[in-house]
Amino acid sequence: MSEFVLSETPPAAAEYIGLRAAMGWGIVDEETARITIERACFSACLRRDGRLVGLVRAIGDGCLYFAVSDVMVSPELQGGGHGATLLKALGAFLKRAAKPGASVTLQPLAGREPFYEKFGWVRCPGGPFGQGMVFKDVPPPVGGTFG
């Protein structure tokens, strides 16, 4: 039986590109992958037999502003508790890094909100924030969707 290993290390650009593609999120070029990986304030990779099978990342300044940018588990492993492993690692990081009054945001794919609620995330309507917005003038990913 193969073992899963979680580490708070960023993935290689090629691994990130491959996992995004497997998720159906489209293709980014290697430079874009390298830049986004380098600029994250937190990354945790889940590996099986050395292969990247899960990833969670947060972007921001590392103390007052955080946005969860990626929560991915290889499609063939979804439903096996690996997303929970990644979110627990993210939660542990946020508890040690976020300063009082920090803004920590997540914009889940439509319909995925109940999954995140299990880990302490709450929906924004009714609180100090709106439902979330996106900038419409960004082109869609090449060869992928988010739905």
Total count of strands: 5
What is the CATH superfamily? Gcn5-related N-acetyltransferase (GNAT)
Q: Roughly what percent helix?
A: 25-40%
Low-confidence stretches: none
**Which CATH architecture would you pick?**
3-Layer(aba) Sandwich
In short:
The protein is of the alpha+beta class. Helix content is 28%, strand content 24%. Strands 1-2-3-4-5 form a five-stranded mixed sheet.
Written overview of the protein:
This protein is α+β, with helices and mostly antiparallel strands and 147 residues long. The chain has a single domain (4-117), classed as Aminopeptidase (3-Layer(aba) Sandwich), CATH 3.40.630.30. 28% of the residues lie in helices and 24% in strands. The chain has helices at 13-23, 30-38, 82-97, 113-117; strands at 4-7, 40-48, 51-60, 65-73, 103-105. Strands 1-2-3-4-5 form a five-stranded mixed sheet. Helix 1 (13-23) crosses helix 2. The longest helix has 16 residues, at 82-97. The chain is globular, with a radius of gyration of 15 Å. The mean pLDDT is 89.
SSE arrangement:
Layout: E1 4-7, H1 13-23, H2 30-38, E2 40-48, E3 51-60, E4 65-73, H3 82-97, E5 103-105, H4 113-117
Keywords:
4 helices, 5-stranded mixed sheet, Aminopeptidase, alpha+beta, 147 residues, 5 strands
